[in-house]
Write a structure and sequence with these properties.
The protein is mainly beta. Strand 26 and strand 27 form a beta hairpin. It is elongated and about 75 Å long. The N terminus is likely disordered.
Amino acid sequence: MKDHSVSGASHLLGHHSPTKPGVDMRLPEAISHSDERHQRHPHETPHEHGTPRDAMVKYGELIVLGYNGVLPQGDKGRRRSKFILYRRKLANGVKPSRQHVVNKPHNAKAVTDSKQHSVSYTLNRSQSVVVEYTSDEDTDMFQIGRSSEAPIDCVVMDTAPGDKILDSIITQSTISRFACRIACDRDVPYRSRVFAAGFDPTRNIFLGEKATKWRDEGIEIDGLTTNGILIMHPKGKFFGGKADPGIWREVSVCGSVYALRESRSAPQKGALVEEESNTLQDGTLIDLCGATLLWRSAASLGHSPTKRYLEHQVEELNAGRPQCPVGLNTLVIPKKNTLTESEKQPYVYLTCGHVQGEHAWGREDETRRRCPICQQIGPVVKLQMGIEPAFYVDTNFPTHAFNPCGHMASEQSVR
């Protein structure tokens, strides 16, 4: 079973150990400082479809971990590295209304009616429970999955490591075509909740005979999807860097929260966790079994840096014309990921944190080099800016880099 006990970047490299996920960068003199100008980001008034965004109600953002702001092939349509959830012009939410037992669920009126949302729980070959859903004018629904069909608002594919091309790695996806759905309250405080499974083009959800399902007190029926939808709420405030990783839980089709099963697709559900809910908090992680999403609330994002602010930080660093202490050539930090090589590209030594340009000195083997400044041996990677604002927990200057990818961010964000 996948280990969900720790967060991927939950600790700072306090001493120079290559096994920790962050490294304190030893930047060249010209770019190792900060001043008060960096604590404010420029005023922006972005628009979408001709409507000022400050006139729209924003629920929050879902960010796919692993892409630093853009997919390798580019963000296109509903397949993106980030999804912004706004209040819809017309509510499309649904809520359960009634349930009944049927012998042939595929022929049931609630299932065949193209205007009726329903969830079918197959108990055995001759009996199913169909739960009918009715319109909910108080909520907006957003659906997530790998299907490109119309009901899916956020198309998410399996995350490939590094800059590798996804199609050459993933032979069979573990993300469900209709993985989960999020219901956002249309009124203050705009509560957002996540539920396992999404409705297909016929507005149905089918849980087969082998799917984990149960009846609470013999009345209400609920179930889990095959590979499960896991969530982890942070302990403490995410923005500000004071949060600790929580415990991974599994959310059901009806939104209840349970302890993890013995394995991802085990038939027996975990214990009910009554003290936790499916309401998304700022910093909640959603594991789709192939990709992980980060939820950022609109209220918290109002204090976060903007993309233009982060780009401005890169411009300020490059304006200082930092030099490689070995080659004495000027280094230029790129604003985005690139596969092309440049003699101005800075590199960071992950063991010690020293930043230098590309040179041939100190090569120990294919993956490790000896730092000419401190003589420590370890891996070397390109240094580049973490340009996705939602990952930042403050607006401080980038002084640290993630290990092993080399993306720059503030100290608290890396921790």
